[in-house]
């Protein structure tokens, strides 16, 4: 009688979500089963379900007494880590199963910061920065007309006053969410630069 053992399982969720951690047990009788988080007991089944007092999950856990799965509600970033299920069968210890949970902050806002500098030759350099409400583990994709730029938070290019308005969008994504911002940029030769290039900033939601 063993737990199903295979490739370590990784689950990605967003802050505020719920997650059910499946036991994946073969049928049989178990004297006790224990769910641990980062090495500490958080829930145990031994004829009935008992939750460890004082854990960070207090009031947010639900262990199924038939399937032995563990549901965690109202996830926080601090809930990221390894959950281990282990226990004891009729005759011996059973194998263990580890589930790695990664909780991510969903992207709530994306803003394009546009920095246009008029040069002495009356052309412009353009720097666009994709500013996002949360920063870890983000992927960026820019689209400028039909050109695609990947894996860069900012892009640079040149324009002349004769060129039309340029439409640009930035898509920022992580493993649980994505959002897109749009901007229109143009080089204007009527910008005064008394002491050198002048930066024109605009934030576009």
From TrEMBL:
Localization (cell): Membrane
This protein's record includes keyword Signal: yes
Keyword Transmembrane: no
SUPFAM superfamilies named among the record's database cross-references: Immunoglobulin
Any one annotated GO CC term: membrane
Keywords noted in UniProt: Glycoprotein, Membrane, Signal
InterPro entries: CD2/SLAM_rcpt (IPR015631), Ig-like_dom_sf (IPR036179), Ig-like_fold (IPR013783)
Protein name: Uncharacterized protein
Natural source organism: Oncorhynchus tshawytscha
């Amino acid at each position: 009688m063993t737990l199903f053992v295979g490739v370590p399982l990784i689950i990605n969720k967003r802050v505020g979500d719920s997650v059910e951690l499946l036991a994946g047990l073969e049928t049989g009788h178990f004297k006790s089963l224990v769910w641990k988080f980062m090495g500490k007991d958080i829930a145990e089944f031994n004829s009935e379900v008992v939750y460890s007092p004082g854990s960070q999950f207090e009031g947010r856990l639900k262990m199924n007494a038939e399937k032995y799965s563990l549901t965690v509600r109202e996830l926080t970033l601090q809930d990221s880590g390894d959950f281990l299920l282990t226990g004891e069968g009729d005759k011996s210890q059973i194998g263990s199963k580890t589930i790695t949970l990664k909780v991510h902050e969903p992207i709530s806002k994306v803003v394009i910061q546009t920095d246009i500098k008029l040069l002495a030759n009356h052309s412009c350099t353009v720097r666009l920065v994709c500013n996002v409400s949360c920063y870890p583990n983000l992927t960026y994709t820019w689209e400028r007309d039909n050109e695609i730029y990947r894996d860069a938070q900012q892009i640079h290019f040149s324009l002349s006053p004769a060129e039309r308005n340029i439409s640009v969008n930035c898509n920022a994504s992580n493993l649980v969410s994505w959002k897109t911002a749009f901007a229109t940029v143009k080089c204007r030769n009527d910008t005064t630069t008394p002491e050198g290039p002048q930066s024109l900033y605009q934030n576009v939601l």
